[in-house]
Write a structure and sequence with these properties.
The protein is an alpha/beta fold and 361 residues long. The protein has helices at residues 16-24, 44-61, 75-87, 101-110, 226-231, 241-257, 259-279, 306-318, 343-360; strands at 5-6, 67-72, 93-98, 115-121, 145-148, 169-172, 189-193, 204-209, 298-301, 321-322, 333-336.
Length: 361
């Protein structure tokens, strides 16, 4: 069997060693006589798996003790709806900075519950840049300020933590969590779907400052209450145990590889290689994002015509470079270079890009 280089934006490539360990443990795990997906989430064995995953994630990201870590189903979009329910009163003002497709999605999820103020919006410029902090129109009485740390579709990324004063900063880190060191203490809430850098689809991580759990929020069912999930160690209901287990294996792999500082180095090298190929192509390939906010995780680019885009994707797939078709919202090509993508994948993509240009330029 030969594994291809998978550039999918999510569900995304996972470390081969993690997949092989999961394969080996699938039928019978840890001497219990059953698979990890067959044992109770309340068993001592699985509780130990869950606790180790949290401990390892805290080490990986440097999460302070005054932050709770929740492992929840529903993905990041569900969290976008739960955030206003847990952190704001009904109709209270909240500030959103919209830097791409997922920022717009976050606004849609919040609007039924709160008064959304669009503090800044990059759509007029095609989401090719992030509005300068000096241009943001923040509210004095906002319950929180929401940003999308990395836009998976449009390929823009916050390279610095914006100063929003005393108001809690909430950030969707779905496509860049653990890709470099972050100062968790600068945020009130960090949330992320796991399916890009942390593991498989079907589980999300919410890192929330404990004092924010004390907010009354809005009337909501227990299952939608962050406090209830925190009080029950994310086992208020049956959690996605297989996904949690795989997340734990992936986090342990990242620690063994050198942690977020090492992945920051690797990710910078991979992204630089692809961007240099684009910028050095004489316009055959083009990335339209302002260089200062170019994403290291998701690189969208375009060829001279849609026909060439389609040919590029088809020939790349035949060459073992998968899932390079751009999102339907923007078209073109997109290469996702998450932590589990090795440097060799970026090198193979760059070599294919050079060859394709020579044959079609």
């Amino acid at each position: 069997m030969t594994r291809a280089f998978n550039f999918s934006a999510g569900p995304a490539t996972l470390p081969e060693s993690v997949l092989r360990q999961a394969q080996a443990e699938m039928l019978e795990w840890n001497g219990v006589g059953a698979s990890i997906v067959e044992i109770s989430h309340r068993s001592a064995e699985f509780v130990a798996v869950a606790a180790q995953a949290e401990a390892d994630l805290r080490t990986l990201l440097g999460i302070p003790d005054d932050y709770a870590v929740l492992f929840m189903g529903g993905g990041a979009t569900t969290q976008q709806a739960l955030l206003p329910l847990n952190l704001a009163a009904a109709g209270q003002r909240v500030d959103y900075v919209v830097s791409g497709h997922w920022g717009k999605t976050a606004v849609r999820q919040a609007r039924p519950y709160v008064d959304v103020n669009i503090a800044a919006d990059g759509e007029a410029g095609g989401f090719r840049d992030i509005p300068a902090r000096a241009q943001w129109r923040l509210s004095d009485d906002a319950a929180y300020v929401h940003i999308t740390a990395n836009e998976t579709i449009h390929g823009v990324e916050f390279r610095e933590v914006p100063d929003v004063g005393a108001v809690p900063l909430v950030a969707d880190f779905s496509s860049s969590i653990a890709s470099e060191p972050i100062d968790v203490s600068r945020y009130g809430v960090i949330y992320a779907g796991a399916q890009k850098n942390l593991g498989p689809v079907g589980i999300a991580v919410v890192i929330v400052r404990r004092d924010l759990l004390e907010r009354a929020g809005q009337p909501r069912a227990d299952i939608f209450d962050y406090r209830s999930h925190a009080a029950r160690d994310s086992m208020l209901n049956t959690p996605p145990t297989w996904n949690w287990y795989l997340l734990g294996l992936t986090v342990k792999w990242m620690l063994a590889q050198g942690g977020t500082a090492e992945f920051a180095r690797r990710n910078a090298a991979k992204a630089s290689l692809v961007y240099q190929t684009i910028d050095g192509s004489g316009g055959f390939y083009r990335n339209e994002v302002a260089p200062a906010v170019r994403s290291r995780m998701n690189i969208p680019f375009f060829l001279p015509s849609a026909d060439l885009d389609a040919r590029f994707v088809a020939e790349a797939k035949a060459a073992g470079l998968l899932a390079l078709k751009g999102h339907k919202a923007v078209g073109g090509i997109r290469a996702s270079l998450y932590n589990a993508m090795p440097l060799e994948g970026a090198q193979a993509l760059a070599a294919f890009m050079h060859d394709f240009q020579q044959r079609n330029g």
